[in-house]
Amino acid sequence: MMNLDPILSEMLDPATKGYPLSSRALPISAIAAQRWSVLAGDLPLPLAVIRDSALAHNHAWMRDFTASTGVLLAPHGKTTMAPQIFAQQLAAGAWGITVANVQQLGLCVRFGVRRVIMANQLLGAAEVGAVIRLQEEHPDLEFHFLIDSQAQLVSIEKLAAPRKMSRKLTALVELGVPGGRTGARTYDEAFAVARAVAASRSVALSGLECYEGLQIKGDSDRDQAMVAGLMQRVHDVALACDREGFFAGPSIILSAGGSAAFDIVARDLPMNLSKPVLTILRSGCYVTHDSGFYNRMLEGVKARSGAAWQSRPGLQPALEVWSRVQSCPEPGLAILTMGKRDASFDLEMPIARKRYRPGTDTTPQSVPASWKIANMNDQHAYLRFSAEEAPQVGDLVGCGISHPCTTFDKWRALFTVDDEYRVTGAIRTFF
Amino acid sequence: MMNLDPILSEMLDPATKGYPLSSRALPISAIAAQRWSVLAGDLPLPLAVIRDSALAHNHAWMRDFTASTGVLLAPHGKTTMAPQIFAQQLAAGAWGITVANVQQLGLCVRFGVRRVIMANQLLGAAEVGAVIRLQEEHPDLEFHFLIDSQAQLVSIEKLAAPRKMSRKLTALVELGVPGGRTGARTYDEAFAVARAVAASRSVALSGLECYEGLQIKGDSDRDQAMVAGLMQRVHDVALACDREGFFAGPSIILSAGGSAAFDIVARDLPMNLSKPVLTILRSGCYVTHDSGFYNRMLEGVKARSGAAWQSRPGLQPALEVWSRVQSCPEPGLAILTMGKRDASFDLEMPIARKRYRPGTDTTPQSVPASWKIANMNDQHAYLRFSAEEAPQVGDLVGCGISHPCTTFDKWRALFTVDDEYRVTGAIRTFF
Fold first, then answer.
1. ipTM of the assembly?
2. In terms of CA atoms, which chain A residue is nearest residue B213?
3. Which of A259, A288, B94, B278 could serve as A318's disulfide partner, Cβ 3.0–4.6 Å?
């Protein structure tokens, strides 16, 4: 369905961070055959790698999880912005791809994705114009954006009015949480926006949307009550809109779900209405998972999902950033060649997990429990450790990360590796 | 001196964030002629722009400042990683370019820079091999890296031994601060490393280096005492190394200086030795300056630099990120289409400075003092304001940033604009 040829034939060279410094330019399709070894030092550090085995496991895990709960998945593409990974997600059964803005929509369409949810409000001359053009150029494109105010609707109608449109735009009314981000805060506001959309000449109402992710704290009782309350509000508005005949399409979309508590959404969001309901999760971070925030949240997902999911191996951290000890300038401190340009630091610092000492180790070793990344500058990380567990200048250190989104966007290409850290390919990102 | 043709002929298209969504692909050299208007909505938001007038002012300011103090400048290229800006810096009189790693060195060499300081330790098979190759391929390349341990020297010598080298590598011994980052902590350590380098078959000693930037707090008395102490330590080691004949080159490099207190370095670092001394600042952030941390630090620079520099306009914030109000979901809160993927958040949140209301404003307006970006998610910012100064859905908001480095690395291309926010070109980054 997707066409990745333009990516696979794209040439990479040492202008791309992580690419071997003295290798000639190669198309991405030729990289696997080089058999570059991260551990042998074939690639410069820092280096972000994706472990193939963990990535494949996560695709299968999420496919099985959504299949077992009967919900659909439109994974948030903003996490990776990597069409190669979108193709894997669609091949694993995803209904479509979620994006955060129209530039990301354009990339999806370019590479062949034909079902896209934009989990954001559509606004702006460039943006509205591009969406209409894409819909006209691609009659098979199904695209839904969010709307949460009548001001937004008025703005879109003004921009759409002079344009030829062979079909309406389609929108999901967003419900929000007081103190939260976007989304109508009350039943009355949401219903009023839905009524206005239903009466619009340019926009049709295709469903409802909300996002619980920012409210998830890892306290299962509290999280379940919060999500249940939000889902109930979606149900109340959905029933009213359905009764009024506001929903225009052959089916009705209800969508929610990040990567922290998608199990609760999958349980509480589905409902019956007068037309078929498509319940769509939008989890994005599951695909590489992480070694921090999402790894902690997964414990709740598993605990709530019954014995079968507790005994089965959960999502695996697939994304690692490797760097080198460049200096051990005083007791208890090592400086690594990795910084804020290379690894997430927005939720917490990277998590040191593996060490490889060239000339001594044959495989990566687990790091001592005392090793902690305490801080990062633009290009450096500060590794603290207890005296008897000191690294050495030249050691390689592999870190897990917390929050995949803010690591992916630091790399134009991430290399995929096998379990021996030999490069098997490159994943191009588009940020 | 530099060759930017490969960049100017590179095609950009809507796969690049910020590029007009419905424009055909264009070479960078053709972008200015399009006369795209940010305020008219020709480009999608969020959008990072560099104001030409402020950038030109900053180049001239720093040229005049370094000329007036007699020091040289090798601006840190890691800030922008933009060869087009490197070329402007060299044209404005910079001695060379500083980089953070060998990948960045390779980019400099590719585009024609021939004097490079790597303000970091050199280590690793890929990295050492690439440096030797670049030196052999470019006899006119002058490259200096940092060294702060004998372990590092042993590692380099082992990697260099089997390679053909028509000249030695050249290194600056790094002095560090207790509790700081890299660098030898004591006179004895620094002197011992310098002695080992001077005796090395592969590496020659070209000078000394330190970095005061992380210790600058904006308290002038304290900052001056700290920098003076560090410079004194550099002088002590430099005198001893000079006396012993450790410095191998025709001149001796002494280098320090970020963008927070470069005036103190320019005053305190110069010294006389038995050979000509090149005193080299490495400030990077000055080039676009910012609206946060560095803007505050500039007050100290000006206050310490005498009446002429106090009366003259200082560095100007050249870098802005524009986004749109996508939702005003509750009193006092607006959500903007800009997030952690688009603007720095590591030192502080972006600083709202300008508002443009399409259809109402003819030029950008100053924003009310109450407007503050309180938080960002991956793709959203939370703008707080007092009730009587509310923005509207659809408004454009222009934010200054704090810390240029962590905004540049979020954009593959930044558009340059004139004072009416018409696009005059694109600056390619290489992260």
1. 0.97
2. A377
3. A288
